[in-house]
Amino acid sequence: MTIRLLIVDDHPVVRDGLRGMFAEQADIEIVGEAADGEQGLALAERERPDVVLTDLRMPRLGGARFIARLAERAPFARVLVLTTYDRDDDVLPAVAAGAVGFLLKDSPRQEVFRAVRAAAVGESVLSPSVAARLLRHVREPAPRTAELSEREHMVLTLVARGRTNKETAAALFVSETTVKTHLAHIYAKLGVCDRASAVAAAYSRGLLT
């Protein structure tokens, strides 16, 4: 079976390098390349890839938001992250949003090939540093935190699914200002300062599943 692969990365040199790498693999066919998440979504819907190999930090749409949108609009595609970043704020939201694998860009090419083949059949592949971070979060006792209100939990759930403030406000029939106020309260209760950190903290503390 030929694996249909979509590459999403905002650096042309990286895309060129990946295209050259995968040209050697008879069982992997690149069906498209995108420079950001918006292009990636459109190509995924049109080309129906088996695996989306994506960076995290990209213009317009990237990271956990892009992965969450893919899960909604192209659920047939499995997402494999290939990035330079392995901080908690990068790893946890991406995995929580639905990524089946997470590799760093210094991974050997044979490891990348194996990860794409594993992702195509639904298996998870994690670089050692990423696996260690996830294991640490599983083992760490959840810190005590103020309880989120029902509306705050709803806002955080939508944020974890990649919704913007505007989209969250529309879904809950409130104003964007109200959403921002809820987020400020969520940040204070979780001891974080941004959306990605809030989602990561919520998953690690069991507030989101």
From TrEMBL:
Any one GO molecular-function label of the UniProt entry: DNA binding
Gene3D superfamilies: 3.40.50.2300
Domain named Response regulatory: residues: 4-120
Domain of life: Bacteria
Keyword annotations: DNA-binding, Phosphoprotein, Transcription, Transcription regulation
PANTHER family: TRANSCRIPTIONAL REGULATORY PROTEIN NARL-RELATED, TWO-COMPONENT RESPONSE REGULATOR
Full protein name: DNA-binding response regulator
Organism: Nonomuraea aridisoli
Taxon lineage: Bacteria, Bacillati, Actinomycetota, Actinomycetes, Streptosporangiales
